[in-house]
Design brief:
The chain has 136 residues and is mainly beta. The protein has no helices and twelve strands. The chain is globular.
Length: 136
């Protein structure tokens, strides 16, 4: 809202697992708004909120989206897959674990670290999606 006037609005209707609204549900890059909801990642243009694209990024639920500015791409954290997407919605890579991902994802030094339901922790190379280490 600008001066208490609504500038634009959008309603996203999708399918897939239930996801809540939290600090990693959206990310902005200046010209687009990216929203993780249900099983999909949405790209909306700013300031009009017109839909640029929508891609299913997980077969179950997408829990969050992160901007990787040093790679100019988006990282998605899903129940079944950690994925990397271009800002145009093209899948660059995807990585799955031995069980569903349930832990918070941490991004540091070109690596993502996330835990699964049985307690294994995966270190994923953000350049190519390869799992470089699994700790039990």
């Amino acid at each position: 809202m600008e001066n208490k006037a609504l500038l634009s609005s959008a309603v996203l209707i999708g399918i897939g697992g239930a996801t809540g609204v939290h600090e990693n549900s959206i990310v902005l890059d200046g010209s687009s708004l990216y929203v993780a909801a249900g099983d999909a990642l949405y790209s909306l243009s700013l300031p009009t909120l017109e839909l640029n694209w929508c891609e299913q990024v997980d077969l179950a639920a997408c829990f969050g989206v992160f901007l990787l500015p040093n790679r100019d791409c988006l990282l998605t954290c899903g129940e079944l897959e950690i994925g990397c997407y271009s800002k145009a919605g093209e899948k660059l890579w995807g990585s799955s674990g031995g069980d569903i991902f349930t832990g918070e994802i941490e991004i540091k030094n070109n690596m993502a670290e996330v835990s699964d339901f049985i307690g294994d922790t995966y270190e994923i190379d953000l350049h190519n999606g390869k799992i470089v280490n699994i700790r039990s």
